Amino acid sequence: MTATIQPGKFPADAGATLRLRDVIKTIPREYFQKSASKAWTQVAITIVSVALCYVALAYTPWFLLPVAWFVTGTALTGFFVIGHDCGHRSFAKRKWVNDVVGHLAFLPLLYPFHSWRFLHDKHHNHTNKMDVDNAWQPLRPELYESSDIVRKVGYKLVRGNFWWIGSVFHWALIHFDLSNYHTRDRAKANFSNWFVIAAGLIFLPLLTYTLGPWGLVKFWVMPWLGYHFWMSTFTIVHHTLPEIEFQEPKVWDEAKAQLFGTVHCEYPAWVEFLCHHINVHVPHHVSVAIPSYNLRAAHNHLKSIWGDDMVIRNFDLKLVKQITQECHLYHEDRFYQTFNEFEASKH
Fold first, then answer.
1. Distance CA 219, CA 73 (A)
2. Most buried among 25, 246, 307, 330, using CB within 10 Å?
3. Rounded to an integer, what distance in angstroms lies between the CA atom of residue 203 and that of residue 107?
4. 108-117: pLDDT as tens digits
5. Distance CA 184, CA 322 (A)
6. Measured at the alpha carbon of residue 325, what is the angle toward residues 126 and 223, in degrees to the nearest 5?
7. How many CB atoms lie within 10 A of CB 340?
8. How far, in Å, CA of 199 to CA of 194, rounded?
9. Does residue 13 belong to any structural domain of this protein?
10. Per the confidence metrics, is the pTM higher than 0.90?
11. Distance between CA atoms of 347 and 344, rounded to whole angstroms?
12. Spatial separation of the C-alpha atoms in residues 263 and 327, rounded to whole Å
């Protein structure tokens, strides 16, 4: 049966089943409404922010460049969030507008829009489901043990202190491989792939020719890495904590995974502003139809009902340390085990 959902109540009575569609029904309909003015305001904010950052980069003294690169990468992440809304069709009412804006928003990042969209949809449809979810799924110990040395080293790096390059590997190794897509989707994925490949083959050599190798590093590579820092950080924090369960497919519960297996994490206000509050992530996993500018209102609503059970954190070094030092390999009883614990268990 379906439990009656009331503010402040959790449907835990015997036999009750919490279904995702019932959770969605509790959210006021206005939070699903698209607003062209709000959507294009976000576009304007990102364009102006990125432009100002690049002007600052041109005049920043060398010893302050790391700060400028980091802020520019954060501003560039706003483009990804806009494309992210487009991919979920929550940016505009017309499909072609979402596709055009999505491709253009992803272009400065050389990210293939349709390729990302198809793989990202799989993540939403199978969030925290072992062997199916494609976003920061922990490896099973036996798979890790049987992997070649290159994969082992790469996995240990991105699950540890080098988590911040995980998004680069994901971008390079996953999205451009057409075997990762259904046959019906390959034409669109191929178009998006060649769209960014062609742009890169034109823009990057032109930038190098105009400003030299240092200009390429200064104005594109380092800000791009700054963007990937946030992509890696945001995505690993979204669903990874020692107490968050990756479930076996046979017992996977959609509502539990989306509502209680997703982390709401508060970042510094300037990061939230430039990244359009994408880290208000629980309502986004409850329904991808909610535009990013309505996520906070939807989150507050969900919190009024399930606040005691939702996972809410503040971003700090302690959180990063907890994830990168404890959440390494899958464990069927306590969700995660460290690399050291796994090695010790073999003896």
1. 10
2. 246
3. 11
4. 999 999 999 9
5. 41
6. 75
7. 10
8. 8
9. no
10. yes
11. 6
12. 15
| Tokens standing for residue 132 | 């199916």
Whole-angstrom distance, CA of residue 265 vs CA of residue 259 = 14
**For the residues 251-277, what does the mean pLDDT come to?**
96
Distance between CA 312 and CA 282 in Å, rounded? 9
Tokens for 86?
């487009």
Say whether pLDDT at 4 is over 60: no
Neighbouring CB atoms inside 10 A of 156's CB total: 14
Question: Tokens at residue 6, please?
Answer: 């009331």
Specify if 162 maps to a domain: yes
Q: Is the dihedral of CA 325, 259, 232, 66 positive or negative?
A: negative
CA angle 113, 115, 118 (to 5 degrees): 105
State the amino acid at position 31 in one-letter form.
Answer: Y
CB neighbour list of residue 19: distance below 8 Å, 6 or more residues apart: 2, 254, 255
Closest CA to 119 of 78, 32, 179, 196: 179
> Quick one: CA dihedral 56, 61, 63, 65, positive or negative?
positive
Contact predicate 118/186, CB 8 Å:
no
Q: Which candidate, 295, 302, 312, places its Cα nearest to that of 243?
A: 312
Q: H/E/C letters for each residue in the chain?
A: CECCCCCCCCCCCCCCECCHHHHHHHCCHHHHCCCHHHHHHHHHHHHHHHHHHHHHHHHCCHHHHHHHHHHHHHHHHHHHHHHHHHHCCCCCCCHHHHHHHHHHHHHHHCCCHHHHHHHHHHHHHCCCECCCCCCCCCECHHHHHHCCHHHHHHHHHHCCCCHHHHHHHHHHHCCCCHHHCCHHHHHHHHHHHHHHHHHHHHHHHHHHHHHHHHHHHHHHHHHHHHHHHHHHHHHHHHHCCCCCCCECCCCCCHHHHHHHCCEEEECCHHHHHHCCCCCCCHHHHHCCCCCHHHHHHHHHHHHHHHCCCCEEEECCHHHHHHHHHHCCEEECCCEEECHHHHHHHCC
List the domain range (segments joined by +) for residue 71.
Answer: 30-345
Is position 270 within any domain? yes
In a domain? residue 6: no
Number of independent structural domains in the chain: 1
Rg (CA), the chain: 21
Does residue 244 surpass a pLDDT of 90?
Answer: yes
